[in-house]
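Worked problem 6 (solution included).
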Amino acid sequence: MPASPRFLGHADYRHGSRPRAAVLVVNLGTPDEPTPGAVRRYLAEFLADPRVIELPRWLWLPLLHGIILPFRSRRSAHAYSTVWTERGSPLLSLSQDLTQGLREALDADARPLTVRLAMRYGNPSIRSVLRELHAEGVRRLLVLPLYPQYSATTTASVFDAVMDALKDWRWMPELRWVVDYWKEPAWLDAVAGSIRQAWQDEPAGEHLLFSFHGIPQRYFKGGDPYHCQCQGSAREIVQRLGLARARWTLAFQSRVGREEWLRPYTDETVVALARQGVKRLDVVCPGFAVDCLETLEEIALQNAEAFRAAGGERLRYLPALNAAPAHVGALGDAVRRATEGWPEFATHWNETAAQARQDAEARHHQAFVDARHPA
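Solution. The predicted structure is:
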């Protein structure tokens, strides 16, 4: 007789114990180090996801392991090495900062929420973090993917991984999801505000380029709403900036392979703008919650070099929101709305808690200012 399935459970569960609630913050992921071996392991997990590459497994996996990974891993490792910091991967360290800011903001609300970070690919994995939350007795779970715009290639893949991990739980938690947050007024205000601040620090370029990560065109034609949400994001942001239509463009970056992806392409657009006479170009990437390889290396280095080679003078990348107070506040609003009605939050925070929240936000803002403008 086959062995019975083994599920995670609490053999010593005490009835009447107070359930705990948690927020699982998830970003895409990163290699553990900028070496060919580590990058190959990361890419093998990432590119094997059927949400990312919608091809038959019998066709795709031999190509991936036999041709793509041996060549791409070394090239990607070099790219990662150009952005690696003393803290390691920018995507991981900046996601940790953002998660910590969110944790402090929710703590100041006196909301009994555990806030943890996981990576869809790489470490810390969704499965490992969920096991930690299970051991802590979490019974209600909000999943917050750090993707402002929804795509099956990103957001849905996170949901797949969460549900796959929860299949091991004997007593599954109550689940809620933040599907996207690109229409959040606080998030739109935060992006527009960061652009205004950059223009106050240094005069604006002649043109503003919005660059979003691309997806294959056939995914869009298959019903993925990502393209429409990127367009909507840009329109809302430029409306807040009061920017004339002739002064901004939207494009899509990071395509791979020969398949048609969402157009126009960022690398072709920066060259075209330079050849049209634009000398100073600003680029912002509102689809990325924190800076990473695609912004720090692909935009700030590769595309900047291509822009200059085509006749432009300066391409300035405007940083992601990262752990800016306005970004933390926008995500905090999304969490508060998504957890509405949970019994743990039946009692609204009192004046003391509200004051503590303001004090925490003030400290976080001062730390952000000090880091941006060191003495």
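Discussion: The longest strand covers residues 20-30.
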